[in-house]
Task: structure prediction
Amino acid sequence: MIKEKASDKYDAVIVGSGPNGLAAGIRLVQEGLSVLIVEASDTTGGGMRTKQLMQPDVWHDVCSAIHPTAVASPFFKRLPLQKHGLNWIYPKHPVAHPLDNESAVIAYDELSETAFHLGEDERFYQNLVTPLKESWPGLSGDLLAPLRFPKNPVKMLSFGLKGIQPATLFSRNFKTERAKALFAGMAAHSIQPLSHPATTAIGLVFFATLHSGGWPMAKGGSQSIADSLSNYFKALGGDIQTSFEVKSLEELPPSKVVLFDLTPFQVARIAGSKLPLNYLKKLRKYRYGSGAFKIDYILSEPVPWKDYETRRAGTVHLGGTFEEIARSEKEVYDGKHADDPYVIVAQQSLFDSDRTPDNRHTLWAYCHVPNGSETDMTEAMEKQIERFAPGFRDVIEQKTTMNTAHFQQYNPNYIGGDINGGSQHLGQLFSRPVHFINPYAMPAKGLYFCSSSTPPGGGVHGMCGYHAANLVLRKEFGINESKWKFKT
Result:
């Protein structure tokens, strides 16, 4: 059991210490509330953990690796995380997208340079992304929020008219296969068939982040993000208890509110006796998305990409043309395993010498698979890497894999290997986990969601926790967001 304070009571207890649990905790303690975060693992972080998976002093990001939404987060931007140990590293190129028998498509930091190298699509890319980049500071606050009247209605309307389209339809605006391929790699982060509505929105968001905040990695690994958030939370007076798995509400110390950085499946198990039956049934009908299969490598030397510029990219999207990526993502959604999967690769050690103790390198790679899949995708993934980097297998020193069961064992929020906290199809984009009017509150006194199973969904941005905490402050403590007393 948790050792309680002398007062035997907290204002709030948060179950789970992922980016949203930590964000919610920080927001609440900024207003002077007493807050306890409890975490089942021995470290905080959720998807933001870095471990020595195979050899001493060789560090691998277990889940999240590259963080465009973290640097884009309106809440994280306000926090003095650098003072608490977080430093960002920006690769030479944010993204590379290799193609067969021609040079890779490179997404450069500079919008104009990216557009220039898209040839016939230069003007369209400029006209598409320039307004996104210019309006991103305000637009990001509306996009990373629950459904509400936007603070920037005209810009949101313009974004929405494009974003609501399936990526397969929007891709017709591009003339070249190179631009279409680049767009496919961005849109496929939605972990849905590219023929689904609103998959264009994901692609546009990632285009915007490319040229505004960038696609950085955390120096030393993603654990640094968790540690800096945890250190700041504790500096403000918050308490953290690790190695405590909550199985029932009765195990928690008394508090006015409890916030769950968990998925509906877990909340139903922990707090089901307190919830109305009709609400509980809706939680149990919540849809989880496709899973992930991941490989971590130790390499004797960098990946021998055919196109040298790919060796200067932090993130590499593999899958070939738009049509190939669209086909592979559709196969996964249909419960199949793609023979030529869309693979996302991160090359952290090329830019962060803290990842290995010598001249060797790490590599992080994953693909999408059906939820709950037990299929080993190693051969299919390595074939895809070898397609664009002949001789890749020759530089592999050691590797370890994670299937969907391993992901769920590592983090119980990853139901069936779903790393997004639930499918983000249009019907569950804003109405997650149950409805869109008030997605964070439960119909039980003092119980709230604050996880990625609420808007705006998955990603290391903390905005689900931020919005949940603001609701708690208003509803339970009479404190409005406009009264925010920022503390460092």
User: Anything to note?
Assistant: Residues 111-213 form one domain.
